[in-house]
Amino acid sequence: MKDLFAKIYRDKGPLGKWADQAEGYFVFPKLEGQISNRMKFQGREVITWSINDYLGLANNPEVRKADEEAVKKWGSAYPMGARMMSGHTDLHEQLQNELAEFVSKEAAYVLNFGYQGILSTIDALVGKNDVIVYDVDAHACIIDGVRLHLGKRFTYKHNDLDSIELNLARAEKIAEQTGGGVLFISEGVFGMRGEQGKLKEIVELKKKYNFRLLVDDAHGFGTLGKTGAGAGEEQGVQDQIDVYFATFAKSMASTGAFIAADKEIIDYLKYNLRSQMFAKSLQMSLVEGALKRLELLRRSTEFKDKLWENVNALQNGLKENGFDIGTTTSCVTPVYLKGSIPEAMALVKDLRENHGIFCSIVVYPVIPKGLILLRMIPTATHTMEDIDLTLKAFSAIRERLENGTYKKLSQALMEKMGE
User: What are the required cofactors (predicted)?
Assistant: First the structure.
């Protein structure tokens, strides 16, 4: 019999093997200062493109005041206990009612965490006789939720309508045999590529196939649609989404999440979501803070309008300068380059040390080998100066990547790794 830890000592994983060179800089970096368009990294000011504060609410004066007053009033512990047992309050219900109205659903249920929430929602919606159909590029929380499923599940090619229909047909055939149903899962916005899920086309398929639609709209809520109600509103199909999910961790600049659907569905879920039934209720200070944030979203679209002014300036500038930003249809702005992991490390170090630009680096196994993805998150707090400086910096690092400078700089790292 092998030691359980033998595999850990032998293989650190595709990212873990770079830990000695990467940790503290490329992964697990420490940004300092208030959340803003400019923060400090290792003592230097950098323009930050890695903070999911889309609407700039993290340091909005009204939000900060509401947060501070809520903490003074309630502390950070109240309520103690799970919602079902001792942690339910009038403010939780108020937030749920206002969220349901905002996203045009009969009812909503507040969750303590987004990752746990969507995972547990999937688990509660399906049984062993049901079939799940989901996008191959789904977020890890969706994949983990699907892993809990004891029945059949199929992935379709990312946003590919032919693949979607093929797998719906397969799922329907099996569900007819098992006596189950079909759950279709898409994201409103795919967080790496920035593409919206093809919700309009998917709901059209309801005329041909019998399925229920769950949409994870973490990146769409607050950023898309006339009022900011998300990708479903943007595409005119919000009423056809059977279960709508969004997190407070993006546009709301906070912690928590919610699901919204017909009242009967929400009533069922709140009695069957294990991650909520057996976990502490969302703290009152966060609930009050979420109410203030939602009030600002409902009051005006000024934050969303400013966000999109910056998004359009950044994305148009990148395209005009010949950069590949894929087919994003959201605020998420991916910049695709070609190179190895060591080259990516050299490139990002140059960006941070010499150009004062901080953005997330994504490499294999998240994306295919040989590609480098610089993932940028524009916010309402960025300025045109930030965008101009960033465009100039990206032009400079692309030239160094193409002329082999980063390849030379990475040789020492490769030799150190013994490769």
Answer: pyridoxal 5'-phosphate
Q: Is the dihedral of CA 292, 96, 282, 132 positive or negative?
A: negative
Residue pair 206/200 in contact (Cβ under 8 Å)? The answer is no
Q: How many CA atoms lie within 13 A of 72 on its CB side?
A: 6
Distance, first Cα to last Cα, the chain = 31
**12-48+302-417 to CATH, choices 3.10.20.600, 3.90.1150.10, 3.20.20.140, 3.30.420.40:** 3.90.1150.10
Contact (Cβ atoms closer than 8 angstroms) between residue 289 and residue 66: yes
pLDDT tops 90 at residue 52:
yes
Instruction: Report residue 164 as tokens.
Output: 């979607």
- The domain limits of the chain are 12-48+302-417, 61-299
Beta bridge partners of 324: 336
- Using CA of residue 19, residue 23, residue 25, residue 28, what is the dihedral sign? positive
**Token pair recorded at residue 33:** 């200062």
State pLDDT tens for residues 209-264.
999 999 999 999 999 999 999 999 999 999 999 999 999 999 999 999 999 999 99
Secondary structure of the chain as H, E, C letters? CCCCCHHHHHCCCCCHHHHHHHECCCECCCEECCCCCEEEECCEEEEECCCCCCCCCCCCHHHHHHHHHHHHHHCCCCCCCCHHHHHCCHHHHHHHHHHHHHCCCCEEEEECCHHHHHHHHHHHHCCCCCEEEEECCCCHHHHHHHHCCCCCEEEECCCCHHHHHHHHHHHHHHHHHHCCCEEEEEECECCCCCCECCHHHHHHHHHCCCCEEEEECCCCCCCCCCCCCCHHHHCCCHHHCCEEEEECCCCCCCCCEEEEECHHHHHHHHCCCHHHHCCCCCCHHHHHHHHHHHHHHHHCCHHHHHHHHHHHHHHHHHHHCCCECCCCCCCCEEEEEECCHHHHHHHHHHHHHHHCEECEEECCCCCCCCEEEEEECCCCCCCHHHHHHHHHHHHHHHHHHHCCHHHHHHHHHHHHHCC
How is the beta sheet containing 257-261 ordered, strand by strand? 107-111, 257-261, 243-247, 212-216, 182-187, 131-135, 153-156
Architecture label for domain 61-299: 3-Layer(aba) Sandwich (3.40)
pTM over 0.90: yes
